[in-house]
Amino acid sequence: xxxxxxxxxxxxxxxxxxxxxxxxxxxxxxxxxxxxxxxxxxxxxxxxxxxxxxxxxxxxxxxxxxxxxxxxxxxxxxxxxxxxxxxxxxxxxxxxxxxxxxxxxxxxxxxxxxxxxxxxxxxxxxxxxxxxxxxxxxxxxxxxxxxxxxxxxxxxxxxxxxxxxxxxxxxxxxxxxxxxxxxxxxxxxxxxxxxxxxxxxxxxxxxxxxxxxxxxxxxxxxxxxxxxxxxxxxxxxxxxxxxxxxxxxxxxxxxxxxxxxxxxxxxxxxxxxxxxxxxxxxxxxxxxxxxxxxxxxxxxxxxxxxxxxxxxxxxxxxxxxxxxxxxxxxxxxxxxxxxxxxxxxxxxxxxxxxxxxxxxxxxxxxxxxxxxxxxxxxxxxxxxxxxxxxxxxxxxxxxxxxxxxxxxxxxxxxxxxxxxxxxxxxxxxxxxxxxxxxxxxxxxxxxxxxxxxxxxxxxxxxxxxxxxxxxxxxxxxxxxxxxxxxxxxxxxxxxxxxxxxxxxxxxxxxxxxxxxxxxxxxxxxxxxxx
Amino acid sequence: xxxxxxxxxxxxxxxxxxxxxxxxxxxxxxxxxxxxxxxxxxxxxxxxxxxxxxxxxxxxxxxxxxxxxxxxxxxxxxxxxxxxxxxxxxxxxxxxxxxxxxxxxxxxxxxxxxxxxxxxxxxxxxxxxxxxxxxx
Lengths: 530, 136
Hints:
The structure holds two protein chains of two kinds.
Chain A: H1 30-33, E1 57-62, H2 67-79, E2 84-88, H3 91-94, H4 118-124, E3 135-138, H5 143-156, E4 166-168, H6 173-179, H7 186-203, E5 207-208, E6 210-213, H8 215-219, H9 224-245, H10 249-252, E7 256-262, H11 266-287, H12 293-296, E8 300-304, H13 316-330, E9 335-337, H14 350-365, H15 380-402, H16 406-411, H17 414-432, H18 458-473, H19 476-491, H20 497-505, H21 510-521
Parallel strand pairs in A: 1-2, 1-9, 2-3, 3-4, 4-5, 6-7, 7-8, 8-9
Helix pairs in contact in A: 2-4, 5-20, 7-9, 9-11, 9-15, 11-13, 11-15, 13-14, 19-20, 19-21
Chain B: E1 6-10, H1 19-30, E2 34-37, H2 44-54, E3 58-63, H3 68-81, E4 88-93, H4 97-105, E5 110-112, H5 118-129
Parallel strand pairs in B: 1-2, 1-3, 3-4, 4-5
């Protein structure tokens, strides 16, 4: 057997010593760095009793084909004991195009549910009481529009906005950095995000207007430290813009939420979550002068690493996902998505998603890891890894500060090229066999075939027909009026949310609303960094 | 000295997940090929025009979104219309087996599914285009 160069480094390339003992923590005051859970800087968790008090929310990201079909999946998942919903939108929706736009050809309903109008949103949540179920929506560039649709559906259900609880992803910075589903240029996008944060602070006190996401940064091939550094620095950028808008830090900071990847390197991931809480708490207190503890507590959702799933021997993915999910739980996640075994191929089928949910339930109710908070705290290895992760992350954050913040750093292509280099290095390690991927570059065998969810073009036809009927039925003069008002708001400095709500209530479509905004803001084309 | 093989790496459709496309572009470049990367959200028309202007022998399409059955045949058709039928088209991404077989019947030279090694992709292009295509 060859001795792999990578054998004693984490998946991110951090060297690991032969043994960790007291000397690894020499000069470290653990009572200060990692005090009991619930105490600043929350290294060991944001609650004193953690999962003894309340388990994490089991929230499977889900959406495919039409809103009708996705609604059926939601009812199924809730019946299986899932405790929150998480909406996946298709690519045309993510890019602000209606299902009948030429660029939507072949893409409608493929990667998520197709939502082009308030009517689709009404169907998506039919029979689901929005006052009781928390809903997370993975939408970014047109997030304000989809959120407006959601708020109007709540209004129709008679649910007071102040009672609504859930999360809008709405993290545009990581789109420029990693996932690349952007429409408008960075500064105009930041204005829209700030509009939602401001609107949320005034009208939806229990709703998270943003979920600052490292997940996609990691999926794009970053290291754990890059994931953490870019995400936390993105968070600071949103804070800077909200403060600039005139909000007070403790007015909005408690509702900033985070979203991290749960990758395969078990201890590196746990250290990452612990370091995340610590760095954010210090930043909120020292950099921004927050005084509310709620502002300082970093709450996060975790999703197991989609990029770690293999096409070969897909049943192995159940095991990978279980280990990754356990890292997220040992790291103190507030909510969790576990990937399904078939996701290297397609959106998950019902049987696969049920196994994924059961994985969380086994962790929660059988494994015993929930019985005491941060059970690994005090481990020489984990504490040292947490400190090292913190130091390396802070170094990156300083570099971005020196560049003038995240928007200039993105415009210069800095995070993009750092990630591309890390991703290529990792791939070369896999190619050379230094990194083992079971079933792919070692231990190959013929895998069992699995049944896949197929989405054909009937969904697209159905969506196009509904849109045509809607355009014929609604009051088009009122639509035009609300779109004009939105355009004027976008040209000026007023908050666009009230205008977006009016346009949505008039059944203006997502595409029409985004076209109005495109006319004012323009669109963004990145310079590619290979 | 033979001319290096010229490859256009393209990312069609609305999807922005470009990790794979960028890795392939780097790997082909490291293997001595001349690589042009189109960037994101290219329509079939834009891709074929770029292939014409850059005079490439190979187009590599990276598609992860499930839109391959709409996009790839259109690229092949445009190539035929422009009398560029000798340009080889390879596809990488999340392409189910039966779709891969159908795309090959329509004229795609190779389909690389998740887990395909960079060596295999580089090797295929070298062999398919031929090391000695050179003197033009």
